[in-house]
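Researcher: Next entry in the queue.
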Amino acid sequence: MHEAVRSTLAAAAVVLLMIYALGQGIITLGFGETLSYLWLTVTDPTGAGSIRQDVLQYLRLPNFVISFLVGAGLSVTGAVMQAVVRNPLADPYLLGGSSGASLGAVLAIALGVGSLFGMDGTGACAFLGAGAASLLILVIASVTRRSGGSLTLLLAGFALNAACSAAVSFIVAALAEPSKTRSIQFWMMGGIVTGGWMSALTLLLITTAGVLYFCTQRRILDLMLVGDELSLSMGRDLARYRKLYIAVTALMVGAAVYTAGMIGFVGLLVPHVVRLVTGSTHRRVIPMSALVGGVFLACADILRRNILPGMELPIGIATALVGAPLFLWMLLRRKYGGAS
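Model: Structure for this entry, 340 residues:
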């Protein structure tokens, strides 16, 4: 089947799954009923006093949009990082973003930073930590002899991850307050708590701008898969683009981390699944990664709130429960869509 047809069918299936997932919960809505209330949310947002419409409009839909945006951002940055370092095991956190965010969040919790610049203190410090780690990687890449090379970035990211992880472990071990230790544990396992539509606005702007930007960079991303030597012969110096892409992905990852904490597997798994359907060209990989990643995390958020009655699992556990077996199956069947 032609790749364009497969991509269209996959997108349609993802949209249908998204609508179905919105109807799931303690109050279950049928597929047609969900469509009806979605239409009423647009045409008559004040509603007519319907509790079922209010549940969808004010609770499920904002939560779904936030989780969708986080998943879309992580998936696209994962696909970009796999091209930037030419490694199919790359994810959005490869170059120190996760460890820097973790260190920033742990410091905020340990020091009792409740708010920073009018924002949630833990999320804001995590955002700053992710940005600082990415900035340090760019500085290292600039001063090394192989400026911006994928191997240099990979090794620098590995070293920074190790250093930040050691610092996090030291702080956790030194804390004498169990309540702060529990807060660190829950934050590092991820969690999406909706604050209404306004809490999604900044995330919407950053994620949308990032996805659209990388859609325009599809040819450069394709060139990164073939290597620097061939690209130089074609008149393209990829080092400059790598630095720019790292800066943009750092902003997108920082926004996702600020909103939902640390969520694994999304940025690693989704690009592989997408490549199995669409092929490796980034003209299709970037938009489909955004769509599939968004729906994957939104469905995982619904799953973690309904899998155990009366208990909400951290969303990082839900993504690992679904993602780890699927990724292992892909590896055993040699069906992973590596960035090659």
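Model: Residues 238 and 329 are 34 Å apart (CA to CA).
Researcher: Noted, moving on.
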